Amino acid sequence: MSGASVLGEGLSHDASAALTRDYDQHMPDSTDRPTDQPTQLDSGNPGWRIVWRAASAIARRTNRVLALLVRLGVPSYYGEVAVLSLIGRKTGMARPVSVGLVVLGGRRYVGHANGMTAWLFNLAEMETVMLTIAREPALAVHPIALELGPERDAVIDAAGRRGPLHNRPLYRASRGHIRRAGIYYRLDP
């Protein structure tokens, strides 16, 4: 039995439906996407969505510390941590966010295993964003949503292999959920 099915079993049908409704209310319409091609299959397993929300809440607590380390030029302990200088789509205020950067075949990628998050909504609204990596000058990049397919799958696999050691088991266990729900962007110069 897979980890995804075990996690989903504890939720009643009503709780699962409520989670799906809450998640779907925050998803952009297909007209909000720059492409007509889907970037995810569905919102994934309700149990894994809860686990990833909890993991994300913990990660948000370290965002300011990681941003400071990137500005100081301190290399990350698990590969690349980058800062995206986003503008809030509702407030218009600067919203810098620290993200794990996947470099694959010379291209840079960012995303979230649990689908759309606030920072991904902001990224989706921007044509150009500033990317800051430790010990490199800031670079203007264009976010391109990855459609379902081999490029997106390769990024998901690489994110699970190159992420922090404590996240790797979570990526492996929830791989089916991530393939269904994850949203990823290529950052073209």
Number of domain modules: 1
What is the CATH homology-level superfamily?
Answer: Electron Transport, Fmn-binding Protein, Chain A
Shape label: globular
The share of residues in helices is 40-55%
Report mean pLDDT, rounded to a whole number: 74
Number of strands: 6
| Count of helical stretches | 8
Question: If strands are numbered along the chain, what order do they take across the biggest sheet?
Answer: 1-2-3-6-5-4
Low-confidence stretches: 1-35
Order of helices and strands: HHHHEEEHEEHHHE
CATH C-level category: Mainly Beta
Q: Between the first and last Cα atoms, what is the distance in angstroms?
A: 43 Å
The CATH topology is given as Pnp Oxidase, Chain A
Q: How large, in whole angstroms, is the Cα Rg? A: 16 Å
* CATH hierarchy: architecture: Roll
**Class from secondary-structure proportions:** alpha+beta
Described by strand count, sense and barrel closure, the largest sheet is: 6 strands, antiparallel, barrel
Strand content: 15-25%
Report on this structure.
With 189 residues, the chain is an alpha+beta fold. It has one domain (38-188): Roll (Pnp Oxidase, Chain A). The chain has 8 helices and 6 strands; from the N terminus they run ααααβββαββαααβ. A hairpin with a 5-residue loop joins strand 4 and strand 5 (139-145).
Task: Give the key terms.
189 residues; alpha+beta; Pnp Oxidase, Chain A; disordered N terminus
What is the structure about, briefly put?
It contains eight helices and six strands. With 189 residues, it is α+β, with helices and mostly antiparallel strands.
